[in-house]
Amino acid sequence: MTKIIGISAFYHDSAASLIEDGVIIAAAQEERFSRRKHDDRFPKNAIKFLLETSNCNLNEIDKIIFYEKPFLKFERLLETYIAFSPKGFKQFSKAIPIWLKEKLFQKKQIVSYLKEIDNSFLPGDKILFSEHHFSHAASAFYPSPFNNAVILTADGVGEWATTTVAVGNGNEIEIKKEIEFPHSLGLLYSAFTYYTGFKVNGGEYKLMGLAPYGEPKYVKTILDNLIDVKEDGSFRLNQDYFDYATGLTMTNEKFNDLFGSVPRNPDNEDISQFHMDIGASIQKVTEDIIVKIAKNIRKEYGIENLCLAGGVALNCVANGKILKEKIFKNVWIQPAAGDAGGSLGAALGYWHNELKMERLNSNIDSMKCSYLGPEYSNEKIKNILIDIGAKFKSFTNDKLLDFTTDKLAEGKAVGWFQNKMEFGPRALGGRSILGDARSPEMQKKINLKVKFRESFRPFAPAVLLEDVNEWFDLDSESPYMLLVGKVKENKLLEQTSDQMIAKGLEKLNIVRSKIPAVTHVDNSARIQTVTAENGIYYDLIKTFKKKTGCPVIVNTSFNVRGEPPVNTPIDAYKCFMATDLDVLVLGNCILEKHNQINFNLDNE
Predict the structure, then answer these.
(1) Secondary structure of 405-439 in the HEC alphabet?
(2) What's the confidence (pLDDT) of residue 603?
(3) CB-neighbour burial class of residue 292 (10 A; exposed 0-12, middle 13-18, buried 19+)
(4) 410-459: per-residue pLDDT in tens?
């Protein structure tokens, strides 16, 4: 049996993935173990988890594939600094010594880290390097249910490429064309993320959530000054307005002058209507470009299937537009679309594209619902809870489902910890916070009292696949919460004249539908469709539907602001005790907040 580990690291969202004879076995992000959000360090803990899962040591791993090529990235940095010189010398003088000392000789560095895991490790010729966007493309195509597909990848930047189009056939992927740095749709979106006061490489989804509160007033300004978009969707950015190529910030004074304001300081400046309008504008530009590219490659290659990966593929609103316009017959998006998924693509790309190994099941989604992380047996969970003195009851599955759905229907917020942890940024029913989608108070309760995050952030509905068409304008499965659709008209509530003219955050408290907790201000929702493949999570929603007639619940990631989603039962208990979560379900154990004594778990 051939075992291959893929690794992504040293930029953001480090991760490791394991395949055996081409079958995806396990994958996890380092942040889940280290508890450092978007951890970019070498994924030592994630690799240890893979080895435990496969019951092997590092010397029994056949190949270890890093997701990109550091020499190509170094070449890009050098050429960029030379092209923009003398501008950027300060950044150059900071970056180059680090590259010369550490990053350029990454193979040696990787071996050193691996020896920290296992001192007896003998690297030989085991360590190889993929290319960044090829890793993205492989992560999108090989697990997809398509034998033939066009693959679109878009992100900030890899080595040189920022956007690529590839074609996948059977076990082969061929990259057909690409757009290179500094022209990047991902970096353009990140520039506006920075400008509106959110963190780059982490706050982009906040900007996407903010956009519906605004009007796209600045689309023409963006298209006239910042980006030149061709009919086929290809583009070039005007570097006069940006500092990301050589500087320490994303935008510059000329950018500020264009929009008449400096970047928002999140520490002392509230979000205004201006920031909402800016968000709406860049979101509209992004959607239009992605749709243009999609239409062009559908026409050019004549293939009816589309695969998506790269950080831009996490823009579920844009993905929904591709689907709504029926450009492709089928669309499949890698759930770990960002750099974490590059680890999986690196491993799969080597197995199929380099070794020419056939795909075993090219007609099914082989991501296993993205449940690829650690899991804990009921016995292990009970022992942990006893050790920390938690008060809990153990239930059979039927009793557990009955009790939990009763609590959801009462308006309680429930921490839900079952089976394997998800791979990728979305909560998919393994490590989730759940609520009643029918509750007008649930969005505010979870945002402010549980997640401690911005009140404008929307929540996703989890809906039984068999009922999705009754509640949402979506004609497709959306197992990974990466597609947005509208709530069906017959589920919307009539608005008063005052409600219809509400502006900005005034829109937040308007009850718009029969499922207000998951209906965004533009009546959209980021949908997760749930099937029997989701196990007890599916059974829970089915039980909730039997009791309430509603097959939709709130599903959001099990964490508080600034922390990664929980991984272990201890993580879950800490989050439960530090927030206003009412109920915690760990395997078949039920904990209620009013029964607990708040222990100090810092040393656990």
Answers:
(1) HHHHHCCCCEEEECCCCECCCCCCCCEEEEEECCC
(2) 43
(3) middle
(4) 999 999 999 999 999 999 999 999 999 999 989 888 888 888 777 778 89
What is the amino acid identity at position 346? A
**Preceding peptide of 86 cis, ω within 30°:** yes
- The beta strand positions in 186-341, using DSSP E, are 227-229, 235-237, 305-309, 330-333
Residue with tokens 């982490």: 202
Q: Which domains does the chain have, with CATH numbers?
A: 3-143+344-369 (3.30.420.40), 179-333 (3.30.420.40), 378-595 (3.90.870.20)
pLDDT at 528: 98
* pLDDT at residue 604 is higher than 50: no
Distance CA 477, CA 480 (A): 9
Chain mean pLDDT for the chain: 92
Interhelix angle 89-101/70-84, rounded to 10 degrees, is 160
Q: 474: Cβ–Cβ under 8 A, 6 or more apart, which residues?
A: 320, 323, 468, 483, 485, 527, 529
**Residue 348 burial by CB count (10 A; 0-12/13-18/19+): exposed, middle or buried?**
buried
d(CA 248, CA 263): 14
**DSSP code at position 513:** B
Express each pLDDT in 72-127 by its tens digit.
766 666 666 556 665 666 666 666 666 666 666 788 899 999 999 999 999 999 99
Burial class (CB within 10 angstroms; exposed 0-12, middle 13-18, buried 19+) of 272: middle
- Cα 362 to Cα 54, 148, 301, 344, 593: the distances in Å are 24, 9, 20, 16, 46
Q: Which amino acid is at 349?
A: G
Average pLDDT over residues 468-478: 94
- Mean pLDDT for the stretch of residues 16-36: 98
Token code pair at residue 451: 């997640």
Binned at pLDDT 50, 70 and 90, residue 486 comes out as very high
By the 8 A CB rule, do 15 and 43 touch? yes
pLDDT of residue 206: 92
